[in-house]
Amino acid sequence: MAFRFRKSFKIMPGVKLNVSKSGFSTTVGGRGASVNIGKKGAYLNASIPGTGISSRSKIGGSGSGRNTNYSNAATSIPQDPQPANKGWYSFGVALFSFFTLVSLASFINSISAKTDWSLLGGAFFWAAVTAIWWAVRGARRKAKQAKYEAFIKKQADEAEALQMLIEQGIREKEEKLERQRIELREAEAKKQELRRSEIQQVLAPAYTLYVEGLISKEQLATWQKRADDEKYGFIVLELEVNRLARELYAEKARVDMIKTKYDEATACQLIAHQIIIGMSHEQVIDAFGKPTKVEKVSVNGKERETLVYGSKTTGSYFHIHAGIVTKAVIR
After folding, report:
1. What digits encode the pLDDT tens for the residues 106-115?
2. Does position 118 have pLDDT exceeding 70, yes or no?
C-alpha cells in the first residue's frame, strides 16, 4: 500500500511552500490560476471555480527536464534561425495561456464573489503580456539571426582568406619555378658559350692551317665534328691539332727552303721525296730531314755512310760514298 504525504505552508500572500515525499516545491498564485515550481520543472495550473474544469501543463515543453545535449556550445555550428524556436514558442504559448486563464479566472471569480472587476483592465493586461511575449520572441529571433549571419560571414571570410593563401602559395611556387627555369636556361647558355669558346680556342691552329691552305675544308669539318662530339674535354684533341700544326708548318718550311735552294725540277723531286743515285748527301737531308740513325763502314778502304730513316728493314736508307748517293731504298 502506497502512502502519500503533502503539506503546504503559506509564506506570503500568493506564495506557498509545498513539502512532499518527492521534495520541495513552490506555488505562486491563487485560486483559479497558479504556477508550481519544483525539481521536475514549472507547471501551470488553471481552473474555473465551481465548474470542475481545470488544466495542468508544463512550462517550457515536455520532458523530464534532464539536459541531454552533450554538444559543446563553443564549437557548435549555429543553425539557420528561420525555423521557429519550439522551446521559446512553447514557453510563450504557456505564458500567454497562463495570463489569459488568470484574467478569465479573475473575471469569473469576481462574478461569483460579486466584486468589481475591470474588463478593460484585464484586456489591457492580456494585451501587454502578449506584446511582451512577441517582443521577446522577436528579439531572440533577431539575435539568433544576427549570430547566424555573423557565423556565415566569418566562415566566408576564413574561406576567402584560405583561398587567397592557396592562390598566393601557387603564384609564389610558379614564380620560383619560372626563376629556376630562367636560371637553368642562362646557365645552359653560358655553358654552351663557354664550350664554343673552348672549341674555337682548341681549333684556332686548324682554322689558321685552313686559311693558309695547308688543310682542306673536309679536314677542318672533321676536326669540328670531333670537337662537337667531345664530352670529356678537349685535351687530347688540342694535342692532336697542335701536333698536326707543327708537322704541317715544318713541312711548309721545308718546301719553302727547297724551292728557294734548288731549281724547279730538283725541288719537285726533293719535295716528293724522290732521291736518285747521284744526288748529294745534303739533298737527302733536305728531302727527308735528320736521319734516325747513321751507320759508317769501310768498303775497299773507303768509308761508306748509311743514312737510316726508321728501321733498316722497314724504313728508308741511303748509301753515300764521298758525299754522293750510291744506293737509295725508299719505303
Report:
1. 555 555 554 4
2. no
CATH of 266-329, one of 3.40.50.1450, 3.10.120.10, 3.40.50.11190, 3.30.1450.10: 3.30.1450.10
Beta strands in the chain (DSSP E): 6-12, 15-20, 23-30, 33-38, 41-48, 53-59, 293-299, 302-309, 316-321, 324-329
For CATH 3.30.1450.10, list the domain ranges present in the chain: 266-329
Task: Give the pLDDT of residue 181.
Answer: 93
What is the DSSP code string of 5-30?
A: -EEEEEEETTEEEEEETTEEEEEEEE
Give bridge partners of residue 17 from the DSSP assignment.
9, 26
Query: What is the edge-to-edge ordering of all strands in the sheet holding 324-329?
Result: 293-299, 302-309, 316-321, 324-329
pTM above 0.85, yes or no: no
Q: What is the pLDDT of residues 157-171, one digit of tens each?
A: 999 999 999 999 999
CA dist., res. 300 & res. 107, Å (int): 178
DSSP state of 280: B
**8 Å CB contact between 74 and 61:** no
Q: What is the greatest pairwise CA distance in the chain?
A: 188
Q: What is the pLDDT of residue 299?
A: 75
